[in-house]
Predict the structure of LysE family translocator.
Amino acid sequence: MLASLDLLSAFVLFAFVSSITPGPNNTMLLASGVNFGVRRSIPHALGISVGFMVMVLAVGLGLGEVFKIWPPLYTILRYTGAAYLLYLAWKIATSGPLSGEAVGARKPLGFWGAAAFQWVNPKAWVMAVGAITTYTPAQGYVFNVIVIAVVFALVNLPSVGVWVMFGSALRNVLRNPRAVVLFNVLMAVLLVISLYPLLFVESTFS
């Protein structure tokens, strides 16, 4: 088990701060809350938390070592993630104004799409590697990796949910179609900006 209550408390704080601060996931959830509301965005939020939990488990149980042995694999993943992020930014930017008919025809990012996105999300990799290298004691390592992954998911879900609820609250403010279009373009630009650490900061595994 985690070595001490102090270590667990420090990890929970790390999980909360890293989960609730802005990043690709939260930017997309904010946009989803505005465009689709809380109920239709729940699978997206759940996919983030479950997908990230699986990522933490994988990194803790050896995937990080694979990237260290063969760095080109991580480079491929980085640029695949960049391309997918640009695609998501384009989808958000061109989603158009809110209307009952239009919103009903459009689909939010689902559980599996959100879970898969964690593997190409630069912030998720930083969070997962940080959790394993900083907060996982060597004694009882495998059990501690499982605890870290589960606790992170439990902290992450309500944290990212705040962004969905904030986005949903903005629906009442963004009644003007032009305001919604402008909001979606702004969210798309923020997603593109989030590519900076993925493309221009040295890789964790290099």
